[in-house]
Specification:
Number of domains: 1
Strand order of the largest sheet: 4-1-5-10-9-6-7-8
Order of helices and strands: EHEEEHEHEHEHEHHEHEH
Helix content: 25-40%
Shape: globular
CATH class: Alpha Beta
Oligomer: single chain
Bound molecules: manganese (II) ion
Radius of gyration: 17 Å
Largest sheet: 8 strands, parallel
Number of strands: 10
Structural class: alpha/beta
Strand content: 15-25%
CATH architecture: 3-Layer(aba) Sandwich
CATH superfamily: Ureohydrolase domain
Distance between the termini: 34 Å
Number of helices: 9
Length: 286
């Protein structure tokens, strides 16, 4: 039998019933405030995934040996509160079926639905922005309100890579959450930050959300709200390698594929990194 490429994530070859991970895209960018187009990211990230070797040397594994399934793209409604509800439904179904949800955005607001479905003890997010507005441009489900809505589910919030927000947001983040700014990561080193993160989360369930703009826009320019002076792709990989074992859900959001493909290929790599890292951690505890 010849092999075929298709429009689904590369190597997502298992049947739904056998899959331990359920990938789905949410092509929604309805509350975008700067550049629109993150709705095109799920397709771009999947396409980029075909550029990658099946063998992952860090884990010494063949990715297709891990059973995961790509459900395709959610047919998203046009209003953010409705999309958040749709995501909550999909993630609840995946959890009922014993699968770890892996969501490809779309804009960051979709994370709210996943967190509501999973109710993790910790929310760990890499983001240039604090996303702590209670309401923005007429919606409490704007992509600038993600952390504010998540805080209604759990107050245990760790933000890594932030460098943009108003004075009041920074003050509140420092007071209420665990904030590691991009500057702090730069001066301390990511491993030192991650050791602190590990001590905080222990063995608790975590939801891990990667906003693509946590990475410096000079490295991955395909972003709706680009910010310089950020993290590197390797920094995010380190976060995933450290935190994946605790994760009950994962997403990669805010890619805007208007660059030469750098941002989507990094996203494809890091989604695979999550699946492999999580699967290897499970095997070690078996
Ligand atoms: Mn965000
Ligand atoms: Mn952001």
């Amino acid at each position: 039998m010849q092999s075929f490429s298709n429009t689904l994530f590369a190597d997502a070859d298992s049947a739904y019933l056998d899959a331990e991970y359920g990938i789905f895209g949410v092509p929604f960018d309805g509350t975008t405030s700067f550049k629109a187009g993150t709705r095109d990211a799920p397709a771009a990230v999947r396409q980029a995934s075909y550029n990658l070797e099946t063998y992952m040397p860090y884990y010494d594994l063949e990715l297709p040996d891990i059973p995961f399934y790509d459900m395709g793209d959610l047919y998203a409604e046009c209003l953010p509160d409705l999309v958040v509800g749709q995501v909550e439904d999909v993630v609840s179904d995946l959890v009922k079926d014993g699968k770890i949800p892996v969501m490809i955005g779309g804009e960051h607001s979709i994370t709210i639905g996943a967190v509501r479905a999973l109710r993790p003890v910790w929310y760990v997010v890499c983001d240039a922005h604090l996303d702590m507005q209670d309401e923005y441009r007429g919606s409490r489900f704007n992509h600038d309100c993600v952390t504010a809505r998540v805080s209604e589910v759990t107050g245990n919030i760790i933000i890594i890579g932030a460098r943009s927000g108003c004075k009041e947001e920074f003050a509140r983040a420092r007071e209420n959450y665990h904030l590691f700014t991009a500057d702090e990561v730069q001066s301390r080193g990511m491993q030192s930050v991650l050791n602190e993160v590990s001590d905080l989360i222990g063995d608790d369930p975590v939801y891990l959300s990667i906003d693509a703009d946590s990475i410096d826009c000079c490295l991955t320019p395909g972003l709706g709200t680009p910010e310089p002076f950020g993290l590197t792709p390797a920094d995010i990989r380190d976060v995933i390698r450290k935190v994946a074992k605790n994760a009950v859900g994962f997403d990669y959001v805010e890619v805007l594929p208007n660059d030469s493909g750098q941002t989507a290929i990094v996203a494809a790599h890091l989604i695979r990194e999550f699946i492999a890292g999580h699967a290897c951690a499970l095997k070690q505890t078996d």
